[in-house]
Amino acid sequence: MTAYDKGAGVNGNPLYHWIALAVSTVVVLPVPVAILAGWTPSWMRERQAGMRLRAYGVLCIYALMLVNSGPRIADASVETVMACMSVGFGCIAAAAVLFLLAERKDSGARTTRPSKPR
């Protein structure tokens, strides 16, 4: 008999999911929102062509965190958690595509780095 058969939940303690969601919000969310608002971090100024695509890719990763933690916080059923995990795979795929498109756009663009004097 497994833990699922005994009626034990698969979601764990909701407090842990709240903490993880709060930390990921503080760590992950500010930079892509700032980039989409028009600010570019100094370490990324050389590759500005795909900057917005990168920001949307990071937001897809954040959406993955929301999709996976939401049903667990709500103590949803196993079927709902599994369905949301499947949606999370779509978020991962979208982020990967956006990151690849950003890199492709950067490779085709000129760099903004000033040339060195000769």
List keywords for this structure.
118 residues
List the helices and strands and how they pair.
Blueprint lengths: L13 H15 L1 H8 L13 H23 L4 H31 L10
Helix pairs in contact: 1-3, 2-3, 3-4
Description:
65% of the residues lie in helices and 0% in strands. The chain is mainly alpha-helical. α1 (14-28) packs antiparallel against α3 (51-73).
Approximate shape = elongated
What does the radius of gyration come to?
A: 19 Å
Count of DSSP E strands?
Answer: 0
Strand content: under 5%
Average predicted local confidence, pLDDT: 85
Biggest sheet details: none
Helix/strand order, N-terminal first: HHHH
Q: Helix coverage percent of residues?
A: 55-70%
| Count of DSSP-assigned helices | 4
Give the distance, in angstroms, between the N- and C-terminal Cα atoms: 75 Å
Poorly predicted runs are none
Content-based structural category = mainly alpha
Please state the oligomeric state of the protein chains shown.
Answer: single chain
